[in-house]
Design goal:
Strand order of the largest sheet: 4-3-7-6-5
CATH architecture of one domain: 2-Layer Sandwich
Strand content: 15-25%
CATH superfamily of one domain: PAS domain
Structural class: alpha+beta
Distance between the termini: 44 Å
Order of helices and strands: EEHHHEEEEEHEEEHHEE
CATH class of one domain: Alpha Beta
CATH topology of one domain: Beta-Lactamase
Number of strands: 12
């Protein structure tokens, strides 16, 4: 039976409240179209989504680990206790992580117990109330979540900080992004495109990638232009509104896998 080279267009859709993350892959080599039945399609789709989910879980764990490590620095505790802006210290640690480890674009934020921003690693802006503070204000233990911030789709690790007497005095937030996950997927032969639902367009400003299409935000920085054009032509909404976890576009030679997870207030991510 004749073998063909068949691009498989893998889309992993993450729905976090109303956030859509579209993962597009390509270049599954020498697949036999006729030999694949529905069971095999599902097996391929499951393998891809399991891999992506594992990478997200790993990144979430690493995000909290970085936060706990940084909290050991007495300067951080002192800044929260004394309500100081230590932007230069936060930024320096972020830069050192980028230079000495594989963790790029790690951001830090300090809050007081009422959600007032005391310090940001990436900006000198302080004094505003943390977005969605109601989600974390009652935390007594660390929590990590995926959410849409004002600049990007982020993984947000929140660690409550307590005084020696047990009084909650504030929070340390560690923020990471999806670009490293996208790069690891690329190494496996897939081309990712991470998309945030268009209803978040007004929230997003000064975004990390600066790319929007049909009012959907493209979160990963390095995007394959051919894949982006394909999605534009097919329309983003049609790409994610898929009752199955996969679809086949034989004309374009793409296999599209969809995966949806609920997060934020629905379930723990």
């Amino acid at each position: 039976m004749k073998k063909v080279t068949w691009n498989i267009f893998l889309t992993t859709v993450f729905l976090i409240v109303t956030v859509i993350v579209l993962l597009i892959g390509s270049y599954y080599k020498t697949l036999n179209k006729k030999a694949l039945d529905e069971k095999q399609y599902n097996e391929v789709a499951a393998a891809i989504t399991d891999k992506f989910h594992a990478l997200v879980e790993e990144k979430k764990s690493n995000t909290l680990t970085i936060g706990f490590s940084f909290l050991q620095n007495p300067i951080v505790y002192s800044a929260i206790q004394k309500r100081q802006n230590i932007q230069k210290t936060l930024n320096r640690f972020s830069v050192e992580l980028a230079q000495e480890t594989n963790f790029k674009n790690v951001w830090f934020k300090l809050l007081d117990a009422k959600g007032v921003v005391l310090s940001r690693s990436w900006s000198n802006e302080v004094g505003d109330i943390e977005e969605d503070f109601e989600e974390i204000q009652s935390l007594s233990n660390a929590k990590v979540m995926v959410r849409v911030g004002s600049n990007d789709l982020i993984i947000r690790g929140v660690i409550p900080v307590f005084s020696p007497l047990g009084e909650k005095i504030g929070f340390l937030e560690t923020i990471t992004h999806f670009n490293s996950i996208a790069k690891r997927i690329q190494k496996d032969g897939f081309e990712p495109l991470i998309i945030v639902d268009k209803r978040y367009k007004e929230r997003l400003h000064n975004t990390l990638s600066g790319v929007f299409t049909q009012d959907y935000y493209i979160a990963n920085i390095s995007v394959d232009s051919a894949i982006l054009e394909y999605v534009k032509a097919k329309k983003v909404s049609s790409m994610v509104d898929n009752p199955k976890n996969y679809r086949v576009d034989r004309e374009a030679d793409y296999f599209i896998v969809s995966h949806t997870i609920l997060g934020a207030k629905e379930v723990v991510v």
